[in-house]
Amino acid sequence: MPKIVDHDEFRQELLEKYFDLFAKTGYLNVSMREIAAQMGVTTGTLYHYFPNKNNLLEELFYMASRQDTSEALAKIPNNATLAERTKVFCEFVEEKEVYFQDIVLLTIDNFRYKYLADHQDFTLINEADNHYGNKIAEGLELDDKYGFMLAIFLNGLVYHRLVFPDSVSFSEQIQLFQEMFTTFLQNENNIRKE
Amino acid sequence: MPKIVDHDEFRQELLEKYFDLFAKTGYLNVSMREIAAQMGVTTGTLYHYFPNKNNLLEELFYMASRQDTSEALAKIPNNATLAERTKVFCEFVEEKEVYFQDIVLLTIDNFRYKYLADHQDFTLINEADNHYGNKIAEGLELDDKYGFMLAIFLNGLVYHRLVFPDSVSFSEQIQLFQEMFTTFLQNENNIRKE
Amino acid sequence: MPKIVDHDEFRQELLEKYFDLFAKTGYLNVSMREIAAQMGVTTGTLYHYFPNKNNLLEELFYMASRQDTSEALAKIPNNATLAERTKVFCEFVEEKEVYFQDIVLLTIDNFRYKYLADHQDFTLINEADNHYGNKIAEGLELDDKYGFMLAIFLNGLVYHRLVFPDSVSFSEQIQLFQEMFTTFLQNENNIRKE
Amino acid sequence: MPKIVDHDEFRQELLEKYFDLFAKTGYLNVSMREIAAQMGVTTGTLYHYFPNKNNLLEELFYMASRQDTSEALAKIPNNATLAERTKVFCEFVEEKEVYFQDIVLLTIDNFRYKYLADHQDFTLINEADNHYGNKIAEGLELDDKYGFMLAIFLNGLVYHRLVFPDSVSFSEQIQLFQEMFTTFLQNENNIRKE
DNA sequence: TATGAATGAGAATTCATTCAT
DNA sequence: TATGAATGAATTCTCATTCAT
Predict the structure, then answer these.
(1) Which of A56, A79, A70, A50 is nearest to A141 (CA)?
(2) pLDDT, tens digit (0-9, with 9 covering 90-100), for C4-32
């Protein structure tokens, strides 16, 4: 009798472990042997669930892109002001900074793998991005371009503090940005979506 | 007397060639053999000029940070307003967007290399970052934190458009940011350095 | 189930093959590629069984020290006189002279490898040496210092004839030494262990 | 005008430096670049004085083999007893133990190089050995075989303490050996040369 | 004489992947 | 399903030697 294992569930389990373990080291810099060892399976088993290393990376990216926006949206109270809405996103990222650093690194790895593999299609990757931008805009009740603007600044901050730790203060920078962002947008009547 | 070659000058020449050739592919993904071949030298020669691959990366990064800032600062006219000053930096990055995407990738590679090598000191890399931040602040005639803020947004934008090409318009985003940034800072009398 | 191979047994098999093949040439002068080729495996396989070249040397040395002493001790008859006991060790080395020349070369290689690697600890190598000294003393039923004395002379002889072949006669030298050694020790009542 | 340099004298100077610097590391394990650097010359210059690396080693061995025996012989007083004569050699080696360890290592390297190079002639190497043996016998006023015996034991002791530091006491071992050696030989009337 | 840039084969080691069991 | 032994090309880096100057 074979072990009773739900194939997809186990795949998911492996992916989550992989994500936590290897972001900083670089997904591409970790050998399949190491991945397998850390996950408590053998290389053979790993290949049973993922046809090759690139596929593992792709799946990982896909998984990560599905998470988190809904979590942030849920934190926005009813009838919140723009300042309050902005604050929710900023604090969400601040609290999960390390996680978002991992996302940045994963995204770069994924980009590289795609780029290396002869400019393969970026459908998945762009879809994931749109997802983020749209959801933030939706949360802010603003036009998409302002959703992206906030996303860009937060990404920039996460990236910056990843590669240059301690060069800037997270809270100082987001406080400044929030002030600037909300002041600016409140004065522009036309920017609000109907 | 040996063959007439200026050691430092040739190093520089190699660095520049290398930078042009390989940024997109990922510095870590290109083997020293390939690098040498593309540069028209042998591996032995390459190692004559750079003790190891890590050093090649570091030197490249350091070189870039010095060049960029002095080039950008030179573009600021005398008696320029804050809006004009900000514009110089934004346009500088816009014009050289592909170049700065390479810098982002190089920075990540450099980070990973250091991180892998047992959390080595990031002195050089942080120094380069501070240099960017300080020089931008100097160009803006503002406090350092605003220099970093602009740097963070521009980095975020470059990163974003690198991994999610065409998701946002560079010019739209910088236009919005410039407005927001200058409007906000002009109203705050206290932020201006004496 | 994997391919049926007893990991430890195959390691041992490889060690023995290696020992026979390469002692004279110098363990360090043979590349891992050559070793693998001569053993009929690939480099990958070799590294599957030994983490690095250094470890291969160490294991080899350790293996040798255990085998030799137990083999020699087994040859000592019950109720043997000191002269007979001494003779067993001398003849053991004489019979396996070429083998012990290999051990000398291996020992030097091992020493150098350790010395080069930043004066690493010589624990294993010293343990092996103590083992030799103690076991010889045990076989002679004498104090350790006399065990080492015999070991030193035999080592000296092996070394001498290795680098200066035919300069002295093995049998002549050990005959002289045995006479001298046993005559001397029989007159010293106090040296015998109770 | 060329620099006034006595070719042979400079060769000699280089050899002596080389001997001191690289014994422990292994003459063959040091690159020509390192040798040159440590000697304060360039590789080009080094090759001006020695046609290749093997020749450097050979010359080094030749140089070493010419030294020292005369120095030891000079220390023997007139009308010295056998015990006194033996003592001179033992103490000579004890005082210069590190130097003799280097000689052992050099001899092994030389042997290996000869052996590797298709069993080249060992003339030089054997000549050097005979030189040692004969001179010791001459100093002891005994038959050559006893000269070699002492040489073998001293070599054995030096070798042993090189690779197994602190395993035995130099002075204890030579004291024991001297007693044994002289007691034995004084009782054997026939061994004395006429 | 002396320099040191250049060479390129070869070193140890790693690694994604396959496949017999 | 699961194992882990086996593969062999690729990686970073070293080094004795040559040679234009």
Answers:
(1) A79
(2) 567 888 888 888 888 777 666 667 778 89
Closest CA-bearing residue to C1' of E4: B2
Question: Encoding tokens for residue B194?
Answer: 């004496």
d(CA B174, CA A148): 12
- Which pLDDT score, from 0 to 100, does residue C120 have? 60
Q: What is the band of D13 on the pLDDT scale with cuts at 50, 70, 90?
A: confident
CA atoms of B175 and D160, how far apart (whole Å):
79
Tokens of C62: 């350790």
Q: Do C167 and D107 touch (CB under 8 A)?
A: no
Burial label for A96, CB within 10 Å (0-12, 13-18, 19+), is middle
CB contact at 8 A, A131 and A65: yes
DSSP annotation of D11 reads H
- Contact of A154 with A90, CB cutoff 8 Å: yes
Q: At D192, phi and psi to the nearest 5?
A: -70, 135
pLDDT digits (tens, 9 = 90+) for C76-119: 998 899 999 999 999 999 998 988 888 888 888 888 877 766 66
Chain B hits for A145, Cβ within 8 Å: 168, 172-173, 176
Contact C136, C147 (CB under 8 A): yes
If one counts every other C-beta atom within 10 angstroms of the C-beta of residue D55, the result is 11
Residue C183 forms contact with D (CB below 8 Å): yes
- Subunits that touch chain A (at least 3 Cβ pairs < 8 angstroms)? B
Token pair for residue C17? Answer: 């093959």
- Cβ atoms D30, D22 nearer than 8 A: yes
State how far the Cα of A15 lies from the Cα of A112, in Å rounded to an integer. Answer: 19
Query: Alpha carbon of B70 to those of B65, B135, B162, C116: distances in Å?
Result: 9, 8, 24, 46
Tokens of D112: 């290996």
In single-letter form, the type of residue at position C22 comes to: F
A133: amino acid identity, one letter = G
Beta bridge mates, D192: D142
Domains of chain B and CATH, by start: 54-189 (1.10.357)
pLDDT at site A3: 45
pLDDT of amino acid D2: 37
CA distance B10 to B188: 49
**Going by beta carbons, is chain C in contact with chain B, meaning 3 or more pairs sit under 8 Å apart?**
no
Residue C51 corresponds to which tokens in the numbers above? 């983490």
B31 touches strand E (CB under 7 A): no
Q: Tokens 């050696």 belong to which residue?
A: D181
CB D192 within 8 A of CB D141: yes
The integer distance in angstroms from the CA atom of D125 to the C1' atom of F21 is 41
Rounded-to-integer distance, Cα D53 and Cα A135, Å: 70
Q: Could you tell me which residues come within 8 angstroms of residue D147 by beta carbon, excluding any fewer than 6 positions away? A: D133, D134, D135, D136, D137, D138, D139, D140
